[in-house]
Amino acid sequence: MASEGPLIALVAGEASGDNLGAALIAALRERVPGARFIGIAGPRMREAGCEVLADSEELALMGLAEILRHLPRLMRLRRRVVASLCERRPAVFIGIDAPEFNLGLARKLKGAGLRTVQYVSPQVWAWRQGRVRDIAKACDRILCLLPFEPAFYAAHGVEARFVGHPLADQFPLVPDRAGAREALGLASEARVLAVLPGSRRGEVQRLAEPFALAAAWLHTHQPDVQFVAPLTSEATRAQFVAVWQSVAPGVPIRVLQGQSRVVLAAADAVLVASGTATLETLLSRRPMVVAYKLAPLTAWLIRRFKLVKVAFFSQPNLLLGRAAVPEFFQEQARPEILGAALLELFSNSEHWPSLAAEFRTVHEQLRGGGAAAAAEAICELLPAASAR
To answer: Which pTM value belongs to this model?
Structure first.
């Protein structure tokens, strides 16, 4: 009878972390026979066989002021997870994104003698750079999704490795636009705008109205444009539909749950919340308008104390090092501004082929092995008898 494999702990926040965690579990199982998994997980990690201590939706928060409101609950959850993992003694702990929660958790677990990994680097190179000292104390290894990140950590004496972005391996280098349109029942000649207001309820709360009103503005100028919105969950879907019906009742839209990759492949242009979805849009070779809004107090703190150290906030612009796609933050994310930027995408497409070629170059650079490379890096930290 085969011996029981090592216990591996993972904590993932929100949908993108759940996707990363599920792929990582599959890759680890290939290399570590009989491995068992426990942690904070979403539906995909559950399906992959992770024993669930709490749902990843509990960590789906963004910003400073937003987290403060939930801090007592998060601290209680962290204490419960620390107690459970210190009792169960996993061979390694892997924090997947959610750095505000995971780094504090990793520090406590490392202090208790456990090996710790942070999978997805916090954007410490972009804002609050002083956090790198705390990361060094909390983590044995950082697994980076972006190729320029390890050099930043090396300058601060932190072990970090570029493992590639799993999404880059999941998206084809040549998107199947015709197949996507057929799957969604969209005519080949239709003009389609994909609307992605975020995966967190807080994001949808702040962006649903300006996105709906921007679509209404565009509808008055380009009435033939069709709108399709893929939402990540039933809760965010219902939330978005309620806002759209309230502020843009005369604008027809098709709202789906899931299917974002199919919608992106089918679209002519995308109105998207800053985050992982902007990278998915890049990998789908679609022109985009990016927007983001934080709670007013969070935005004020960021500006007042100059916490952000980079010129851009959307991933396409960060990866290309220039303002390749229009991005609008906070009070700039007004309907008429977003609508005008979208109209520009639909009206003037001469520059798009060259930008699509740049997007493909980034896509190729991000293909570093993804979940397989991350699993290899984690296996190096396991006891020698565990990994195959």
So the answer is: 0.80
